[in-house]
Amino acid sequence: MCLIVLFGGSGDLSRKKLMPSLYNLQCQGKLSEDCHVFAIGRRERNEKEYIKALKEGAFSNSRLGGDERAWKSLSSRIYYRNFDFGDGAAYERLEAEMSKLENEKGLSGSRIYYMAVSPDYFTLITDSIGKAGMNKGAKGSYRRLVIEKPFGRSLESARLLNCEISRVFPEKDIYRIDHYLAKEMIQNIMGIRFSNAIFEPLWSRDNIDNIQISVCEKDGVQGRGGYYDGAGALRDMVQNHIMQMISLICMEPPISLEADEIRDEKVKVIKHIEKIKGGNLKERMVLGQYSAGNVDGGDVAGYRDEEGVPSDSATETFAALKLEVANRRWKGVPVYIRTGKRMSRKLAQIVVQFKTFCQIHGFEPYKEPMPNLLVIRVQPKDGVFFQFNMKKPGSTEEIVTQQMDYCRSCEYSENTPQAYERLFEDVIKGDASLFTRWDEIEGSWKIIDEILSGCTREEQNMQFYEAGSMGPDESEELLQREGRRWWNI
Ligand SMILES: NC(=O)c1ccc[n+]([C@@H]2O[C@H](COP(=O)([O-])OP(=O)(O)OC[C@H]3O[C@@H](n4cnc5c(N)ncnc54)[C@H](OP(=O)(O)O)[C@@H]3O)[C@@H](O)[C@H]2O)c1
């Protein structure tokens, strides 16, 4: 079994997500008793106090509640060490300590290095791991690197980062996290598509009118204004989560469920997304920034008044785009995407709108019915919604629209692993299907880079929208121009 080294072990992500996930795995008997965790932070901390704080975090953040026995076992295998990431000698000390433990306990020498740290440290830590020889284990063991988002902030910086980490770890041992991929309904996209005879044969330009992907948040920048202002909605949400959703919804069936077979198909979709450049930007993109408004009955500040945000910031907190996957299956089908902060609803979903049924002779009284919609709900509810038409009961010819709404979390909530739990399990197993490969990241950065660098500020069409709305009016117009609308289901 492996050692897990959590760089940033005292940070927010470790406290709220990573340690509770390891605890959940322990509760379910999915974490080997031979798995030890080294948590690395900068500040000196009393290890007992640190572990006590972890316990509170794990018990309050876990869906499984407090299991003293499981915690006792896990916590006896957690060690807190502090050093500055820039201190090269500290890695050698850590290596010596870990090797000693591995020898004493007869462990395999397999290790997972998890970067729960600011992206500024990704290269420094990886490089130091390499210099201390921590990237190479004994024959039969593995050394894996898990890296949090964001992976670069442009194509160039992503390439540079990739080049640096690839010097130390081969691609097969690099696990780039996009925690969206571990969300149950995102994993379920392939399940719904490839296990239902009523959907897959219709899954193309012949029957689908458009696809809409929305990832809307009510939250603002939540004290991370400084970080967010250097990113914006396109880099923070579209380049990663939304591109992954497009690729899963539009990909061809992979030959198998092997990680690389799935990723081969996903990357083809990204490569087929038609470029958006200066000339056609205005018809295909709306960027927005929230001004002061009201969310859930409470007044909230505008983006430029958030802490850490310059008063003349031109960073977008909203983006809506019309994309197209220009291959045989999808040519001509708009893929509308939108994402934003401080919107009236928290909503992550994919809507597949089918073409309206052409009238059959004799059924003219059934006027134009509403389109069939298949909605894959990701959050806050998760499940599947389907809209269809039927005749109103009685002697009338009137057609009415009905919905079937399946709530997955209502049925399986207790048994569903949290995203990070699933990701840990997969890294330990060596299953990379829910992690992004370099060519997927490179392909999606190319698209975002072209949008951001291929046009002037004016062409970017930045609009203000009131906090607590569904984004700028121009986002509605993007679809209305083409006789369509956003479905806020
Ligand atoms: N927080 C989340 O919910 C979340 C969600 C998704 C992705 N992420 C990503 O996860 C990463 C970590 O985020 P976070 O929110 O956990 O950050 P954070 O709370 O600021 O934690 C940073 C960690 O790094 C350590 N650290 C910082 N500088 C160091 C140095 N020079 N030497 C040694 N240790 C140092 C800190 O140690 P001290 O505490 O001792 O200073 C702390 O353990 C980021 O890439 C973020 O984008 C976070």
TrEMBL record:
It catalyses: D-glucose 6-phosphate + NADP(+) = 6-phospho-D-glucono-1,5-lactone + NADPH + H(+). GO terms for cellular component: cytosol. One of its GO terms (biological process) is glucose metabolic process. Pathway: Carbohydrate degradation; pentose phosphate pathway; D-ribulose 5-phosphate from D-glucose 6-phosphate (oxidative stage): step 1/3. GO terms for molecular function: glucose-6-phosphate dehydrogenase activity; NADP binding. Coiled coil: none annotated. Substrate binds at H179, K183, E217, D236, K341, K346. Keywords: Carbohydrate metabolism, Glucose metabolism, NADP, Oxidoreductase. It holds the Pfam family G6PD_N. Residues 5-188 form the Glucose-6-phosphate dehydrogenase NAD-binding domain. Transmembrane segments: none annotated. Its EC number is 1.1.1.49. Residues 191-487 form the Glucose-6-phosphate dehydrogenase C-terminal domain. NADP(+) binds at G8, G9, S10, G11, D12, L13, S14, R15, R42, D84, F85, K149. The keyword Nucleotide-binding does not apply. The active site is at H241 (proton acceptor). Belongs to the glucose-6-phosphate dehydrogenase family. Catalyzes the oxidation of glucose 6-phosphate to 6-phosphogluconolactone. This is Glucose-6-phosphate 1-dehydrogenase.
